[in-house]
Amino acid sequence: MSENKAEILVGGAVLAVAAGFLYYLTSTTGIGGQGADSYELTASFRSIQGVSVGTDVMMAGVKVGTVTSLELNPQTFRADARFSVPQELELPDDSAILISSEGLLGGNFVEIVPGGSPFNLEPGAEIEDTQGAVSLVTLLMKFAAGGGEGESETVE
How far apart are CA 2 and CA 55, in angstroms? Predict the structure, then answer.
């Protein structure tokens, strides 16, 4: 009889830890779905390399949303992204959005740079001013190839 009680207690503890882990996972990654307190915006990028569904959307270094979908637009050949932001965050309609890097070895995230317009974006609106991902390999190749162009000749 005491073995059954021990098994029940251990099983209950395992279920409690699993439920706690699941709650932590959904609250920190935004997988739990969008609530009524957020709205979606869209943007079209030339390159969205390093960004996937669930990537953080940040403003001034603070997470304010999540990328909810990515698709290739067959007419424009650009990557169309949808992302959610909190309802209380009223973005000016001249805001910009860009793909930024967390550092040399870090991943990419989506950054919103607010504009100064007195008019705000409506839910479902598109942010027009975008900047796609910059490839580190391309930058390094340009630096290596152009190393001799800026040097001046010395006259003796």
Answer: 49
pTM, two decimals, is: 0.64
Most distant pair of Cα atoms in the chain: their distance: 100
The answer, yes or no, to whether residue 63 has pLDDT greater than 80, is yes
pLDDT digits (tens, 9 = 90+) for 97-138: 999 888 767 788 999 999 999 999 999 999 999 988 776 677
